[in-house]
Amino acid sequence: MADYTVTLSAEQEKALLSNVISIHEWINNAIQNKARQMIDRHVTESGLGSKRTPVATKLQIIRDMVIETASERAVRLFNE
Question: Per the domain annotation, does 27 fall within a domain?
């Protein structure tokens, strides 16, 4: 499991708090949702499951997959 840190200026924080109750909760929700979307995409594209596949099964499929990172893909495409 990885931890990430985000640094905001006082002005950024002030502006965000005019729109969200908790910046931490908003960031956590956004990243969790993006991860869920990417898990669904990889599982569906692999043909090993679908969006309706149970979460535990999806996570096992992801554990067993070799997934090219965006950085690796960028390097590969640059070198083609």
Answer: yes
pLDDT per residue, tens digit, the chain (80 aa), is 899 999 999 999 999 999 999 999 999 999 999 999 999 999 999 999 999 999 999 999 999 999 999 999 999 999 98
Give the range of the structural domain holding residue 40, as residue numbers without chain letter.
10-79
pTM: 0.85
Q: Quote the number of domains for the chain.
A: 1
Does a structural domain hold residue 74? Answer: yes
At CA 20, angle to CA 39 and CA 9, rounded to 5? 95
Question: What is the widest separation between alpha-carbon atoms in the chain?
Answer: 46
